DNA sequence: TTCGCTTTTATAACGGTGTTAACTTTTATA
DNA sequence: TATAAAAGTTAACACCGTTATAAAAGCGAA
């Protein structure tokens, strides 16, 4: 008798309905006004049911953070496969990162904006490490054999990521200021500058 | 009779006590757990008194944002005076910006972290425009007569600012990762790369 | 089928938040 | 001294996250 299995499946369904209801609220009202009570209302269950699936509101946000990183790393790996040359790969990753941020503003804001993932929470997200790995590997390929072969790769990764994050968040702050074309030009400018500094 | 003046002075004192009480709370517990009620408790007044000085909690946060920009622009102008050469000036401003962010983590997080100042709120802060002006002017001095004299200065400003903000916020996310010396090295690296791209 | 046990779900409360309406006290003026 | 204005307080409203407690439902054994 697949009784316990059916129950498991039903539980899973409720869990998913919680997440989709939460996501709809985030899309229509933003992260700040997301509330457990409104989720309960939307899925037509009482509040404590939510707490039998998630330990706290933060746990729900963490789940979305995880999802966000999963998406991001998926798209980045995909774009990394397209380019053979490390230099072009770094350019492609940058474009993908940028695209992700503005295709998924809510995700990006949760992942890096408010909340500010501390070292503890961020390190618990496996996908974050993958993100770091893909880029670090590419940088390594780029500088191997060059004049900067002895550079601290982790520091270089941080610089690269900083450039991306900085450009994205400044663009998000005043998104009316520059056109999309201008902004991607800035992105290209900054990244190519970084790449040049690595191989010269 | 300096009666109305005395009252004005007393009102001002209460206003200041609100801000200092709020600031103490922020220092000890962070922005998220700052509350009107706790402020009222600290200054030994009832809650509505606070609302006779500030229209809302956001108004209090806005006041601190203003203060933050005031400090930042003050320190930046000071450091800009030290250096005559535009290239070194940009280096100095970057160091000052970095220093400000980590000397005043709470300010920086309020100004750029949570909340994410939208274009509307940010533009109402006069000091923000000054910030933009000082840097834009310096960039202009740097590229005038060079091979990039026709570059879009505003875009270049955005790139510069993005580099700074990116480095600072990534450093804040995992502040245990790199030593201060390494981080300022990264800062120098990134900024000098930017400067080179402007004059070559 | 009915009893009892376990799982699931709901009600209601606790302590907290920002905000404001209504009331009281103090203060200064005519 | 009466009166109008200012200052301040109490208490409420409508929320929030979280949880203790009670009710309902589902299921196995008698």
For the record, the count of structural domains of chain A works out to 2
Helix content of chain A: over 70%
CATH architecture of the largest domain in chain A: Orthogonal Bundle
What proportion strand of chain A?
under 5%
- Oligomeric state: homodimer
Number of helices of chain A: 10
The outline of chain A comes out as: elongated
Structural class of chain A: mainly alpha
Describe this structure in words.
The structure is a homodimer of 200-residue chains. Chain A has 200 residues and is mostly helical. The first copy, chain A, has two domains: 1-54, Homeodomain-like (Arc Repressor Mutant, subunit A), CATH 1.10.10.60; 64-199, Tetracycline Repressor, domain 2 (Orthogonal Bundle). Helix content of chain A is 78%, strand content 0%. Chain A has ten helices and no strands. In chain A, helix 4 packs across helix 6, helix 8 crosses helix 9 and helix 9 runs antiparallel to helix 10 (180-199). The first copy, chain A, is elongated. Chain A binds chain B through residues 109, 112-119, 122, 152, 154-155, 158-159, 161-167, 169-178, 182, 185-186, 189-190, 193-194, 196-197, and chain B through 109, 112-119, 122-123, 152, 154-155, 158-159, 161-167, 169-178, 182, 185-186, 189-190, 193-194, 196-197. Chain A binds a DNA duplex (30 and 30 nucleotides) through residues 3, 7, 35-37, 45-49, 51-52, 56-57.
Keywords for this entry:
2 domains, Tetracycline Repressor, domain 2, Arc Repressor Mutant, subunit A, mainly alpha, homodimer
């Amino acid at each position: 008798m697949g009784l316990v299995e059916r129950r498991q499946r039903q539980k899973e369904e409720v869990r998913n309905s919680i997440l989709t209801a939460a996501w709809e609220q985030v899309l229509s009202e933003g992260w700040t006004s997301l509330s457990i009570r409104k989720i309960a209302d939307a899925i037509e269950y009482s509040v404590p049911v939510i707490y039998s699936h998630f330990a706290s509101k933060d746990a729900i946000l963490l789940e979305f953070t995880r999802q966000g990183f999963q998406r991001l790393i998926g798209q980045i790996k995909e774009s990394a496969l397209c380019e053979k040359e490390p230099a072009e790969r770094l350019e492609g990753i940058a474009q993908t990162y940028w695209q992700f941020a503005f295709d998924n503003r809510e995700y990006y804001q949760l992942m890096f904006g408010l909340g500010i993932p501390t070292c503890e929470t961020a390190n618990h997200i496996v996908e974050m490490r993958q993100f770091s790995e893909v880029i670090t590997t590419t940088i390594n390929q780029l500088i191997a054999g060059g004049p900067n072969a002895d550079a601290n790769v982790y520091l270089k990764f941080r610089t690269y990521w900083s450039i991306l994050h900085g450009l994205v968040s400044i663009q998000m702050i005043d998104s009316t200021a520059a056109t999309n074309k201008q902004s991607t030009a800035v992105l290209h400018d900054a990244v190519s500058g970084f790449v040049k500094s690595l191989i010269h």
